Amino acid sequence: MAATRSSNLDDTFYKAADDFFAANSKVGLTYDDITLATLYSQILPRNTQLGTTLAESLHLNIPVISSDMDTVTESRMAIAMALNGGLGLIHYNMPERDQLSQVSRVKYHVQGLIQDPIKVAPEQLIGDVLALIEEKRFGFSTFPVVDGKGKLVGLLSGHVVKPRYATKKVMEALTPRPQVHTITKKELGKDPIARADKFFTEHLGIHKLLVVDDEDHLHGLITMSDVERITQERKAQFKPARDAQFRLVCGAAVSATRNAFGELDRERILNHVSGLVERGTDVVAVSTAHGHSQGVGDTVKVLRDAFPKLPIIAGNVTSAAGVEYLADCGANAIKVGQGPGSICTTRIVAGVGIPQMTALYLCARAAAKKKVTILADGGITKSGDVVKALTLAHAVICGGMFAGCTEAPGEVMEIGGKLYKQYRGMGSLAAMKAGSAARYGHDKADTTRKLAAEGIEALKESVGSVDRVLAQLIGGIQSGMGYLGAANFDELRTKARYIRVSPAGQREAAPHDVVELKTGN
Ligand code: XMP
To answer: Could you tell which of 426, 463, 469 is best to mutate to test the pocket of ligand 1, judged by most ligand atoms within 8 Å of the CB?
Structure first.
């Protein structure tokens, strides 16, 4: 007789999505209101597949996206996200040309290639270089030497950057150009790390390789230690998310910009997105607080007509009708979430928004009909929330989870012996004045009326690198999939069974009745 793997008794209590949400249609539910029931499993967490396809030409190796917020995603964050297999959406609270260069930095990021290495000039004194190292606290003392036009003159080796040579000029101490090992960008080819790895093996004792163009202008520096670290990392389970040309994937947010007459500024939107596409942007996100609106729909239509193959994310919505509308306008992936964010006050200020699990359920069913995908945006505070979200959505968008990371924009500040970074809502007054007012249907130049803020300015504790935060998240997602016997997200979505949790059940779910010595992470 086969061992029992399921029971009718369980089915009375633990319901599949359609039955569960229909039975709870009178109340809006969010992550902590529910829990997932375990199922018989033959799946080990480490063997689960975390790949997700958001649009025909947009595939991620992990289902995590960093939010298009000005305290979360610029090029450094987008690079870190893509290197881990996810995606960063570069925010639009900056001049368009700056956003274009942010995208370029991601698309031309060669892992291990320091694109803009610290350089010194031939006329400088070794003493000046020592002072620079001291002031900036550099952990290295070898520098490329370039002339006023950026042409390579030589390499200043750490062996000569010593106080005893302080009064000597760099030009007297450098290793001259003919003896410096260089490679052109073209020679680096499609897999620069493999190429550099080969170079270091063939050139005994050489630890630095300079990258130049055909006119000998310096374009970068590759160090042996970086190459060794990356070669190690390549054995990691999750590969970087790359485009067909082996570049990291990158997304950018755009707004439904209006002209002085309050009409949609089609020309400006098209110019902006053309620039983004030229730079290699893999997906644009039409990011607003109210996606089920004419302005957002028309923006998506304009973009769909002009760029038939470009993956478009649009939002935000919390209704089936909102998903259907944006899908009909041409969006591929739809952001779901109004007011769940850790810095959001939309529900308090405007009195609208739907708790996330209920919103995701309705949107997921509409999305399946329209053959589009949905992204759970906001309110994620732990990996368990991600697992719950992914029973309905194709990826999650997180702001607060990443705002304290080293790669988020902004400085670390020390308060009372603890380290923090700034995190603010895009609907906070400060962010709207910096440019995001259109996202909330306001005009930043409108000084006669007070902007109604729908977000706050806050601090997040500094949490180190994105790699570290993602490792925790991914570990949790895989663990959840193991408990549900789901090898991939299709299986997670079909297998999930839910039950509501009482307030006592919520208390039971967190550490309780102990003195906590160390947090879980
Ligand atoms: P988390 O919870 O990850 O949420 O910090 C990030 C998401 O919140 C949205 N967002 C806002 N929503 N007012 C809002 O109501 C705001 O000022 C605001 N700023 C960001 C956005 O969807 C983001 O991804």
So the answer is: 426
